[in-house]
Amino acid sequence: QPFLKEGVSIAAINSPSLCVVSGPFNAIKELETQLKAKGIAGRRLDTSHAFHSAMMDPVVEPFINLLEKINLKKPSIPYISNVTAQWITDAEAKDPHYWAKHVRQTVRFADGIGQLLKDQKAILLEVGPGQTLTTFVNQHPAKTAGHIVLSSFTSSRDQETPAMLTALGRLWLAGKQV
What we know:
With 178 residues, this protein is of the alpha+beta class. The chain contains seven helices and four strands, in the order ββαααααβαβα. It has helices at 25-37, 57-67, 90-93, 96-104, 109-116, 132-139, 160-173, and strands at 9-15, 18-22, 123-126, 148-151. A two-stranded antiparallel ribbon has the order 1-2. Strands 3-4 form a two-stranded parallel sheet. The termini are far apart. The model has no long low-confidence stretch (mean pLDDT 92).
């Protein structure tokens, strides 16, 4: 936070030692220079917008107006909110203002992982390409040897089926019905 200038926001906290910042191009470029001078590693993400920053403010109200026209319902499957890092409540899930917060507020992924890892028998399965989320979970200080963390895909197309079958087999070995 000491490096953040006006207009630059913490967009996501992915792990205790890894965050994403967002804001105007020139401000981000200046921040990159400052971090590099201090020996702090950084990498620019290729995104279309400065998500979770003040640059998104103009779309918040129109987004709320759009969501107010939709019949939002309570979730049928419980999940952790990236806004609160707590289990979603029925009231939040049905509130257009709650969903608009996703556009502007920091994604609290690391805190959400911590919430999931409170269950000492948690099994976390990353569904989708890559292993980024699995890596974040494995780096989390609350992760213990008792937690099972799996990814279901790999970046290698010729290994997709073996990776998925391995994940399914490990779920079955952990006593889960597949």
